[in-house]
Amino acid sequence: MTTSKNKMTMTELLKRPVCFLGLGFGSGLAKKAPGTFGTLAAVPIYLLMKDLPLALYLSMVVFAFVAGIWICQKSAEWLGQADPSAVVWDEIVGYLITMIAAPAGWGWLILGFVLFRFFDILKPWPINLADKAIHGGLGIMVDDVIAGIFALVCIQWLYHVFPTINW
Fold first, then answer.
1. pLDDT tens digits in sequence order for the chain, 167 residues long
2. How far is CA 163 from CA 109, 124, 148, 156, 157, in A?
3. Cβ distance 88 to 41 under 8 Å?
4. Contact 94, 120 (CB under 8 A)
């Protein structure tokens, strides 16, 4: 990929810690469905975080979001695009939002994955509005944050309406 200043290979970009994070540890370089691969990269992160106290989990997600604004902005600049599909830090944060206080079990983990991807890909209102209206690092992040909130609400609703679901 090129920037306006010089040519950089993906290998060179991955050597930059900020870009390494922005590219989802390399998962965003998948030729097809980089957002899905970026979300897959979030699963082990979630598994490491899931047993943390809720306040610490939330603090880490907020930190990942705030840092993500800069991470996504810098990565996009180095890639020379406004919202490159290879930048998937936003998917990682979106999935972590989806899984806030999620019930234990692989079924819930998979359902969270599917719901997040559903909302991230289809971008119903107001996700599509945010995607079009907000630009830069914040714009890259905010539509996935909203998709994560939608998926979070769905998971919590299902769990509370059908508490006997045991995956």
1. 444 444 578 788 888 999 999 999 999 999 999 999 999 999 999 999 999 999 999 999 999 999 999 999 999 999 999 999 999 999 999 999 999 999 999 999 999 999 999 999 999 999 999 989 999 999 999 999 999 999 999 999 999 999 888 77
2. 16, 27, 21, 10, 10
3. yes
4. yes
- The most distant pair of C-alpha atoms in the chain lies apart, rounded to whole Å, by 58
Residue recorded with tokens 């990682």 = 92
Q: Which residues of 77-86 are buried (b: 16+ CB within 10 A; e: fewer)?
A: bbbeeebbeb
Bond into 126 cis (ω within 30): yes
Encoded tokens for 32: 């097809």
Residue 98: which of 87, 107, 109, 89 has the closest Cα?
109
pTM: 0.92
For residue 105, what are its two tokens?
């079990």
- Residue 146 half-sphere exposure toward CB, CA atoms < 13 A: 18
